[in-house]
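**Folding the chain**
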Amino acid sequence: MYNQIIVPNVYNSSPDDFFDGNARLPKEIGDLKLLRKECRNQIVYYDWNLSFKDKTFASRPDNFGKDEIQIIFNINQKIDWQIDSAHEAVSMLPGEVCVFRNKNYATSMDYDCNKNFQFKSLQMTTRFFEGLLSRYFDSDKIEMGKSLFLTHVTKTSITADMYKVLSEIDSAEKYHEFKGVYVEAKLIELIALVLHGIFYNKTSLIERNKDMAEGSRSDIAQIEALHHRIQFNPADDYKVSKLAENLSMSESKLTRLFRSLYGTSIHKYIQNQRLENAASLISSKELNVSEAALQSGYTNMSWFSKEFQKKFGLTPKKFSMLKNPVTENC
């Protein structure tokens, strides 16, 4: 069976309509989880997770009147994409980021059945994007940027730094009332990394590297998913031997790839995330110190207190007595 659907205008919907991850597709077609974060209505970030029960051709007749720059990070599945009634066809592989100007074009994508598709995107008006170019670059770079992004679909690889910032944006909720300014800074950082990757890797109308092993792309996607899981569930049991077995790779390969992507060991990253989580629970006043430690994965209170003080400069007890304790990002 082959489904054909028209993509709804989720972009103009209220964030509350899909922040809870409710499916916006008929259940007989598939599932969609869509989360959104905004930067003062200038840059919008979407996190997409979707799957279809049958092969599906999803089309959109226009961009709802918008002229905007879209940056799409393809995380885990090959996607065939047509722009402006197939005048330009793009094949996006896992681990690629694509930049293009959607000047109210018709677009469509082909989705295989029974696969989970994950991608993340940034969207901003073309006027705002041109303002960024003129604010930070000289005239030569501005003209180069316009020739790359305003007339063609341009691709490059998602770098380790880009994966890191994407994960940081996804976990911004832990900063509570400060998440707005944190997300804004990270979105600008992400745009800078994409521009740097395209300018310096000379990827205008890039010929993709056909020799890149699918296994390596799959490995990176798995490590990114593990990193994301640790951020949101730091108290889980993360034995490296078991993780390596579940990911079908050796322990040495797992630890090497994780460090190369995120600049730290798995063990250190887990401990930092657990301490951050404990500090957040303590500062919320919802749990006492012992409860916060246990819920963050610590059973040895003496060890927890020692590591907490090393990171935050205060014992957990003194930290809990602060009126508005502030945690740092690991």
Observations:
- The first strand starts at residue 2 and ends at 6.
- The mean pLDDT is 78.
- The longest helix spans residues 179-200.
- Residues 114 and 138 are 48 Å apart (CA to CA).
